[in-house]
Amino acid sequence: MTTKVSGLDFSKLTLLDALDLAVLIEEEAMDRYRELAEQLEVHNTHAAAKFFRFMERNEAKHREALLTQRTARFADAPRHVRREMIFDIEAPEYDEARTFMSLRAALEVSMRSETKAREFFESALAQISDSEVRTLFAELRDEEIEHQGLVQKELDKVGSGAPGDPEDYADEPVSH
Amino acid sequence: MTTVQLTSKDFKSNLKPIWCPGCGDFGVVQGIYRALASIGRPPHEIAFVSGIGCSSRIPGYTTAYGFNTVHGRALPIAQGIKLANPELLVLVAGGDGDGFSIGGGHVPHAIRRNPDLTYLVMDNQIYGLTKGQLSPTSACGLKTVTSPHGAIEHPVNPLLYVLSYGAGFVAQATPADMAGMTAIIEEAIRYPGFSFVNVQSPCVTYGEDHQQVKAHRTAMKTLASMGHDPSDRMRAFELASHYGEQLYTGVFYRNPNPPPTYGALVKERQAALAGGLPRERILESFIQR
Questions:
Q1: What is the pLDDT of residues B250-281, one digit of tens each?
Q2: Range of B278's domain?
Q3: Pairing with B81, which of A74, A143, B111, B284 sits 20 to 30 Å away (CA)?
Q4: Chain A positions in Cβ-Cβ contact with residue B26 (cut-off 8 Å)
Q5: Secondary-structure breakdown of chain A: helix, strand, coil percentages, each rounded to the nearest 5
């Protein structure tokens, strides 16, 4: 966790900071999926690029939902958590894209990202004392578990030879 | 000089990188955005100079002033820019071929002058842009299109090279550790004088498996975790000699007493010769002699 977040003490994390952190995690993932899609579009790797575009839209939806939650609760309260404080929490790694990578390979990238995001929230939960923050992070962890299940379902489809349609695993926003 | 609150997005240009998907340079450029955001100088106060090669495209992907120069000549041009406008923050980027083969002769002279600029070398041990020829840092025995039976030369060690010529700041990083790499780049920029960062940025197309980011994640070892004292120059030499065998990351050497920069010495000399004349009137004073 130390290499993924700098300048935040999880034991003292407030709900405001936790929500801002969650928004930034989704934003980072959204940007990264877009960057990976752009890399692949330039190199005519369309199926994987299309999937990464789908993931970009998904992360954008999650980000938006968390932002709505944050605004409803804290309005325009100043943000203390900055994007520069986080590193690849849910975002796929920069070296994950490959020219002509298959849809299956793209799904595997997504699976690794959902897995590391779940691990991040699990690890953070062990340090958090605030009950509201705990509830939020537990929800976010559960969302990641759900996403892992959805990606696995698609991996199974691709593995059996059935064409995978990314829209099949569109999910609901991460927060309520 | 202005210092403002900036984010990495402020440094990202609209130009989309055309590197091979998975290239290490994607991570490096993000690390540069982040480091520049932390430094807080706005893009119009930054000049980014490069030579030729995959990594030399970096300036175009930033919102800073960029100058994609000729092969191996980034350092002399960057020094000229710094001399002409000392207030600019000047960064130089290039590959190992650009820096240690074609431009190799410029490196010692930049170091001995000690201009306040940061030289980032994306060392991928291959000429990637021209489709995989031996580069100055290619390992002995490496088979490439120009060494089908394996390289018979030994590689240049960029770390020993710059340490030997007296660079005041020498570090190595990898995009496998984004946080570490960003911190190193930031520290290099903040160093008052010539700073050098050798970034092990893998070539995803022509590089070997053990050179890839995934391999770096397990192979890398931070100098801080080894208790290395960056002011210990002799120990830095010893650690740097393991280039190619061990992937050490962090600051090998940071001069604890940085000498005056070339810019400061030039300013001092100008003041002495021109008797306090403003810079634009110095030439006039020489003509009058």
A1: 999 999 999 999 999 998 988 887 776 776 77
A2: 259-289
A3: B284
A4: 35, 39, 94-95
A5: 70, 0, 30
